[in-house]
Amino acid sequence: MSDRSRPHVLMMSEITADGKLTLKKGASSKILMKYMAHETEILLHRTRAEYDAIMVGSNTIRIDNSYLTVRLVEGRSPLRVIPNSRADLPLDANVLKGDTPTLIAVCEEADPGRVAAIRAQGAEVVTVGRQQVDLPRLMQLLKEEYGVERLMIEGGPTLNWSMLNHRLVDEIRLIHLPFIIGGSDTPSLVGGMHIESEDEMIRLSLKRYYMCGSNLVTEYDVIY
Questions:
Q1: What is the Cα–Cα distance from 54 to 68, expressed in whole angstroms?
Q2: How far is 123 from 93, CA to CA, in rounded Å?
Q3: What are the tens digits of pLDDT across the range 23-43?
Q4: pLDDT tens across 44-79, in order?
Q5: What's the rounded Cα separation, in Å, for the pair 117 and 102?
Q6: Cα-flanking dihedrals φ and ψ of residue 200, to 5°?
Q7: Phi/psi at 70 (5° precision)
Q8: Domain 8-223: CATH class, spelled out
Q9: Rounded to an integer, what distance in angstroms lies between the CA atom of residue 90 and that of residue 76?
């Protein structure tokens, strides 16, 4: 059950059969997303339209340069939320085009000039945390100040790990792609620190699975 002081959080991602997000380190996930069934693309955009906000990490923005908007179905695009501690997003990033409300979360140590430059692009900037973005506080802020009841994450391994490590994810929805990529340093669904024992594993409860076009989709509740 979600903590009522924060939004309900869904993590959604495409992954290969061996759990990879991209072809190799530094490669865009859009390369693999080309192989999703059209029905699954519609599922992704329909899910975006159902949520109040969508969050990805700044590294994902640098590599994928996503728009994070609703395009394949009718519906309103969610608030885009980008944790970017140092306020060093590229100023030509698609999320700064001004087509959809965008919130950039920075830390107190972010360069004021960079913050001003991002604001000049039309995005809102909020300071949350001293040396890095405080994700639990950001979640509270999103609910209290921005009315976000449901948040969707389309993150990379770093953001996914951070959100799970802070126990901020309620559900996970995975789109399975029938490929094996391999590579010891190829990004997988969750990065972060290595665990020391099975007691530290994050446990899931499978609640639903179905075919969406040619893709298997699995849905889990996260158990803490």
A1: 7
A2: 11
A3: 999 999 999 999 999 999 999
A4: 999 999 999 999 999 999 999 999 999 999 999 999
A5: 14
A6: -90, -5
A7: -90, 120
A8: alpha beta
A9: 25
**From its phi and psi, is residue 31 left (phi > 0), alpha (psi between -120 and 50) or beta?**
alpha
Task: Specify the residue for token string 């969508």.
Answer: 54
* CA–CA separation, 55 and 61 (whole Å): 10
pTM of the predicted protein model: 0.95
pLDDT in tens, 94-113: 999 988 999 999 999 999 99
Q: Which two tokens stand for residue 96?
A: 């700064």
Nearest-Å Rg of the Cα atoms of the chain is: 17
Bridge-based pairing state of the strands 79-83 and 124-127: unpaired
Instruction: Count the residues in the chain.
Output: 224
CA distances to 48, 86, 126, 148 from 111, rounded to whole Å, are 32, 7, 13, 27
Instruction: Tell me which residue has tokens 């790990």.
Output: 161
Q: What would the pLDDT profile of 132-177 be if each residue is shown by its tens digit?
A: 999 999 999 999 999 999 999 999 999 999 999 999 999 999 999 9
pLDDT band (50, 70, 90) for residue 2 = low
Contacts of 172 (CB under 8 A, 6+ apart): 10, 11, 12, 13, 204, 219, 220, 222
**pLDDT exceeds 80 at position 182:** yes
Contact predicate 166/134, CB 8 Å: no
What is the residue extent of each domain of the chain?
A: 8-223
Q: Closest by alpha carbon to 125, among 174, 83, 67, 68? A: 83
